[in-house]
Specification:
Layout (H helix, E strand, L loop, with lengths): L16 H20 L6 H7 L14 H25 L3 H12 L2 H5 L6 H5 L8 H20 L7 H23 L3 H15 L5
Helix pairs in contact: 1-3, 3-4, 3-7, 7-8, 8-9
Length: 202
């Protein structure tokens, strides 16, 4: 007689106070780097915003660079997860246009603190520590993959190339739309990119 063994339920150990605090610091830092840039984000300001003392920083991170790498990773993960949620919320043939409309929206343009870290921080990346660049690069590759998976010829070399171009266009458009002080020009950048990437007659 065969006995079917039931797997015991997986019990997750609740997060410790230190882990919860660590997560809070990274969450604050992920917003801060998008808002103020890497160079404009100081440890003291992050700790203060997280409701902690500056002295407690080194109980969680060996250096500022390690925190910035975790913050870059968190910010990138949030952006990728949002794109995946948008894609999953509509029929497959509408996923890519929905992602483009969300990314190239006025709301995203005005929400730099919670938006895509690539468009918020891309120009600063060459001057960052290797760990920060590595974390950002990993999330950029994930974003390219999310876009490629929505293409009809996903899995073919051409899909990856098209995804590279689309992500570069999305990010570059957002950088330009945020750079100018002319609201009409800013909207024109977004509208022009949307016409190319998510035409309404498609």
């Amino acid at each position: 007689m065969m006995v079917i063994m039931k797997n015991p339920p997986i019990t997750r150990k609740p997060a410790s106070r230190k882990e919860i605090t660590h997560e809070r610091i990274v969450e604050v830092a992920a917003r801060a780097i998008r808002r103020s840039g890497y160079d404009g984000t100081g440890v003291a300001d992050i700790m203060k915003e997280a409701g902690l003392t500056h002295g407690g920083f080194y109980a969680h991170f060996p250096s500022r660079e390690v925190l910035l790498a975790e913050a870059a990773d968190r910010a990138g993960a949030e952006s990728v997860a949002l794109s995946e949620r948008i894609a999953a919320s509509v029929p497959p043939e509408q996923a890519l246009p929905a992602m483009m409309r969300a990314y190239l929206s006025k709301e995203h343009c005005e929400s730099i603190e919670t938006g895509c870290p690539i468009s918020a921080l891309g120009s600063e990346m060459p001057r960052q520590a290797p760990a920060v660049r590595r974390a950002a690069t990993r999330r950029i590759k994930e974003m390219i993959d999310v876009v490629a998976r929505q293409l009809p010829d996903w899995g073919q070399p051409g899909a990856h190339e098209q995804a590279l171009l689309m992500v570069a266009t999305m990010v570059g458009t957002m950088v330009m739309a945020r750079a100018v002080d002319d609201p009409k020009l800013s909207e024109s950048f977004l509208e022009a990119a949307l016409k190319q990437l998510a035409p309404t007659d498609a």
